[in-house]
UniProtKB/TrEMBL annotation:
This is Sucrase ferredoxin. The lineage of its organism: Bacteria, Bacillati, Cyanobacteriota, Cyanophyceae, Nostocales. InterPro entries: Aim32/Apd1-like, Aim32/Apd1-like_bac, Thioredoxin-like_sf. CDD domains: TRX_Fd_Sucrase (cd03062). Pfam families: Suc_Fer-like.
Length: 331
């Protein structure tokens, strides 16, 4: 196995992961909410505990949610010369709309910098105050937001490999989609060993180990779903074992699967060694005319060595690899 090295003799974790055949499936964030704000780069690695990067009155409501056991993924996006507005901050907020859903529910605001903290408080703690921000709300539910991790201060692989992919997407795909698609450089959302990696919202799908030649299919959905298989990290509406099962179902159902409202549950599992799990994925069309479910057995098929962090001599860790050994559509 050989991996590229920079002048400081760095071995990139994502190249080690790819060279050893690590499957990215099951690594999507299973968050109930996303709180995304424009913030200038560079971002420190501890951006969400650093008031020098993010105002304290934004961090406080995030800490409130975490302190009460809530699940939220905050992200910073770099301001864009075309998208952004001097003196204002864009806030994108997504949440699960129901137990069964196909896409996260989107809310977008562009507020004066001075109101950022009070908007964060309204979104995350006091939703009854949101009408006060009606004048700043943006009607952009039709716009798809694709966020590419470029957080080099967390791991250099994300900037080394993330920026070229972002640049290609931003320059070649944004203008060609009738302003219904925006691309952003964003902070870390986990899985830098899968760099270049992105999250596609409001769908909530995560992708990794990306290559330029796969972007057309990922963005435009203009070919065979199965060609996306090795790049899919999973859907953020499901947990680890459920994500592994969902990929196999999607490969069978095709593109229409993305429109179905879905929910997953782990029926039984090896809670000690995580060797297997029995999973059920229920789905329905928005109008309820089609309603069914799949049941799957997910099992360990082996292991590979990966690196959690880039460096001159990265520590290699053994990680289990899984497969779906049984998949049955219930009638």
């Amino acid at each position: 196995m050989s991996t590229n090295k920079t002048q400081n003799d760095c071995r990139f974790c994502s190249e080690i992961s790819q060279a050893n055949g690590e499957d990215p499936i099951g690594s999507a964030n299973n968050a109930e909410q996303y709180f995304i704000i424009e913030a200038a780069q560079p971002w420190p690695d501890n951006i969400w505990i650093n008031p020098n990067s993010i105002p304290q009155d934004v961090l406080d409501p995030l800490q409130f949610i975490w302190g009460n056991g809530g699940s939220i993924r905050p992200l910073a996006i770099a301001p864009d010369p075309e998208y952004s507005h001097p003196g204002y901050t864009r806030v994108l907020y997504y949440r699960r709309p129901a137990k069964f859903f196909a896409q996260f529910e989107k809310h977008e605001f562009i507020v004066p910098h001075a109101l950022l903290g009070s908007l964060a408080l309204a979104l995350l703690k006091h939703p009854e105050e949101l009408p006060n921000f009606a004048q700043y709300r943006q009607q952009t539910n039709h716009i798809r937001e694709i966020l590419v991790c470029n957080h080099g201060n967390v791991d250099v692989a994300c900037s080394r490999f993330g920026y070229p992919i972002y640049q290609k997407l931003r320059s070649e795909y944004a203008a060609a989609n009738n302003n219904n698609l925006r691309f952003w450089r964003c902070s870390h959302f986990g899985g830098h060993e899968f760099a270049p990696t992105l999250v596609d919202l409001p769908q909530g799908q995560y992708w990794g180990h990306l290559k330029p030649e796969i972007l057309d299919l990922l963005v435009l959905h203009n070919g065979l779903v199965k060609e996306l298989y090795p790049y899919y990290r999973g859907w953020g509406g499901l947990s680890f074992f459920e994500q592994i099962a969902e990929r196999e179902i999607w490969m069978q159902e095709g593109w229409k699967w993305l429109e179905y409202h879905k929910a997953g549950q782990v029926l039984a599992s090896d809670e000690i060694n995580q060797e297997w799990a029995d999973v059920r994925i229920d789905f329905t069309t928005a109008d309820g005319n089609i309603s069914s479910a799949y049941q799957a057995r997910v099992e360990v098929k082996g292991s590979v060595l990966t690196a959690w962090k880039s460096g001159a001599n990265p520590t290699l860790e053994e990680v289990k690899q899984y497969q779906v050994s049984s998949l049955v559509k219930l009638t």
